Amino acid sequence: MTAASLGDAARPFTAAALADLVPAGTRLLALGEPTHGAEEFLDLRNELFRHLVTAHGYRSIAVESDCLAARTVDAYLDGADGELDTVLREGFGHGFGAYAGNRELVRWAREFNASAGADERIRFYGADGPLEYTGAAAPGPALLRLHDFLTTRLPGQPLPAREELLYLHGPDDRWTEPAAALDPARSIGRTEDAVRLRLLADELNLLLAAHRPQFQHEQDALWQAELDARTATGLLRYHAATAGDGPDRLNSLMRQRGLMIADNVEAILHREARRGPTLLFAHNRHLQRTAARIPLGEQLLQWWSAGSLLESRLGDGYAFLATAFGHRAPDDHPAPDTLEGLLATLPFPRSVLDPRQLDAFIGESGGVKARVPADHTYFGLDPAELGRLDGVVFVREIARQQGLFGGGDA
After folding, report:
1. How far is CA 152 from CA 143, 157, 377, in A?
2. Is pLDDT at 140 greater than 60 in this prediction?
3. Quick one: average pLDDT of 33-43?
4. Domain layout of the chain by residue ranges
């Protein structure tokens, strides 16, 4: 394959060029990133989202971040008072509020909303559960809010006593013990109290679902109640999986997270249906249409990704744009015979590629391999999966990330 023939599949990146690859009828446009913490991918996400809002009627974005914390960001976009630094710190999970690209997204969306009508304002969502790298949040706050919502609206219904919920739950730190991430014996998730709490949470969920028509006139309060219901039950399932000690424990945790993301996003699409499509931004591994696989020591983690779950629910309404990079400072270079090594020969700093044309070119030449990552912080594009993509963005060079995603001693 020559650079010229490869060039037939590529264009320099513009948001419009990337949007041209999105199929008609897309309800959820998923944009992946190959690694967290690289500002280059946040920048191109912002460029794409601005174009989608101004040219294609998008009015919502969901990101790989805490679904409950994101309410703080959304309120700020709607004009709530607050310092931007505080909103970013409290409104993003995983420390993602520290990134300049996320600051710019929030700043621009608030500015857009200041002159937009009520039905035209941008909404911001977190797609992920309240999960951090050291473990999951306690389910109590969401469960108690759900209980309070139902208590004030269903006075004649025999609800579980709030005092019993408080007793069974106990202090939050029973649930957020960091050691439980690696030691299932330190998790509270399968104790008698947790099992009983999970049963009561199911009763509250049932009441909310059964009486939903009664609450239709108060859409914002209903949205919060259903978010709390999903989150509380999802966290109880996650903590139960954390307490498991079988060989499938880590796969189970990944499955639980994938389901929480898919359920949150499906609810977002239902809420946003009359306002337009939604942009979803997360790691490529979460959004891919195929099962996710991550090597961990001698074990291979495998689970159905949130993207595969969402495609199974949305069909042609789901579109996925993947991203990749070439050189990462200071010395991470793709081998020439890998897909990223091939794309690095393109003349553009950022390229938009039609994956079907790219797949056809690779099929003619052969010999293109998947990139072996230099460390644990990213995963390369698999040439065999190009047919399952709607578009590819290749960034020729990214700066070394800071902190957890920087690799080495960053």
Report:
1. 15, 10, 47
2. yes
3. 96
4. 3-132+277-405, 135-245
Beta bridge mates, 327: 397
Confidence tier at 295 by pLDDT (50, 70, 90): confident
The DSSP letter of residue 347 is S
- Identify the pLDDT of residue 3: 44
pLDDT in tens, 19-28: 999 999 999 9
Q: What is the mean pLDDT of residues 40-60?
A: 98
Which residues, in sequence order, are bridge partners of residue 322?
392
Give the pLDDT confidence score for residue 406 in this predicted structure: 58
Long-range CB contacts for residues 291-295, cutoff 8 Å, separation at least 24: 292/254, 292/258, 294/254, 294/379
Q: Which amino acid is at 37?
A: G
**65: pLDDT strictly greater than 80:** yes
Calpha distance 339→9 (Å, rounded): 13
Number of Cβ atoms within 10 Å of the Cβ of 304: 16
Q: Which two structure tokens, joined as six digits, stand for 265? A: 């996003």
Q: How far apart, in whole angstroms, are the C-alpha atoms of residue 116 and residue 120?
A: 6
Q: Give the pLDDT mean for 95-118.
A: 97
| Residue 33 tokens, joined | 């990133």
Tokens describing residue 287: 């959004």
Asked whether the beta carbons of 344 and 327 are under 8 A apart, the reply is yes
CATH fold label, 3-132+277-405: EreA/ChaN-like  fold (3.40.1660)
| C-alpha angle 385-283-180 in degrees, rounded to nearest 5 | 120
Q: Which two tokens stand for residue 292?
A: 């996710």
CB 143 within 8 A of CB 149: no
As a whole number of angstroms, the distance between CA 50 and CA 44 comes to 10
Select from 374, 346, 373, 371 the least CA-distant residue to 358: 346
Question: β-strands 278-283, 28-33: how paired?
Answer: parallel
